[in-house]
Amino acid sequence: MPENHEPSAYPPVSLVIATQDRMQLLQQAIDAAWNQDYPGRLEITIVYDNHPEHPELARSSRNREVRVISNTRSPGLAGARNSGILASSGELVAFCDDDDAWKPSKLTRQVELMRSENAQGCVSGIEISYGGKSMVRIPKVDTVDTASVTRDRLTGAHPSSYLFRRPFLTGTVGLVDEGIPYGYGEDYDLLIRAATHGRISVLPEPAVDVLWHKGGSKFSRRWEAMEAGISFLITKHPELTASRQTASWLHGQRAFALASLRDRRREGAQVAAQSIRLNPRQPRGYLALAVAAGVLNPQWVVDRLNEKGRGI
């Protein structure tokens, strides 16, 4: 480790990894965290959601520990993350998906940036791996504030890069919202709330390796979840539709999800028209119309977007 690191300047960190038992990928995520060059203590809490625990994953050393627990709150990612937050004790709280991996200096670089900017949280860019290709996505802002996070989904600010001060997260911002339908967009909701209450720094480099699976993420095919989640977020955060640009983007996503459901295609076309009226340059509305008309297969569309490092 670099000689100028003073351990007292690097507070204990609690990393929460929620999992549904993808052992090989999970082990990679654990190892990447364990091998960080961070000089401070790192507590890694593995939270099993609706699957038997694997206690054999637990281990410890001088300043590293892996703990294994079960989700004791509502089923799903939000409840699992909250279980991990509440069961841990580090001064800083971080997340990582079980199919992602931190780059070696991720934690050190973020903690140093937070300290230099007196920030309450930090996100970083990511490097996406999909179909044999690698694509870098970095938020094009210095800090995540209300204006930036409600104007742009900030895909580069992936939840596997989230790092927050514990009192800020558990007290000021509040835990992950377990009431969001299907848990869709729970990470975005958390980032919106955090940006409202404190400074969230951006580390302008890809500090996390993010694996996108062929066939899409957990939610990219669950169209009911996408539609219900976006509708919930729009109601919870009216500022999301304050600008025509953002409203068009969100309604375009809703339209695509509705059009992908055979019994809701007509509704999808109506919402797509709303998206296009708000912003004729927003492509999601046109894609939704094509899906509703049966011209495009929604799975094919998502696959093509993923190849470019983007989602619907």
Write up what this structure looks like:
The chain has 2 domains: 7-211, Alpha-Beta Complex (Spore Coat Polysaccharide Biosynthesis Protein SpsA, Chain A), CATH 3.90.550; 223-307, no CATH class. The longest helix is centred in the last third of the chain and has 16 residues, at 244-259. Strands 1, 2, 3, 4, 5, 6, 7, 8, 9 and 10 form a 10-stranded mixed β-sheet that branches. It has 312 residues and is of the alpha/beta class. The protein is built from 11 helices and 10 strands. Helix 9 (265-278) packs antiparallel against helix 10.
**Domain module tally:** 2
Tell me the span between the first and last alpha carbons.
41 Å
List the uncertain runs: 1-6
Total number of β-strand segments?
10
Report the sheet with the most strands, covering strand number, pairing sense and barrel closure: 10 strands, mixed
Q: What is the CATH class designation of the largest domain?
A: Alpha Beta
- SS strand fraction: 15-25%
How much helix, percentage-wise, in residues? 40-55%
The gross shape turns out to be globular
Descriptive labels:
11 helices, disordered N terminus, ten-stranded mixed beta sheet, Spore Coat Polysaccharide Biosynthesis Protein SpsA, Chain A, 2 domains, alpha/beta, 10 strands, 312 residues, 40% helix
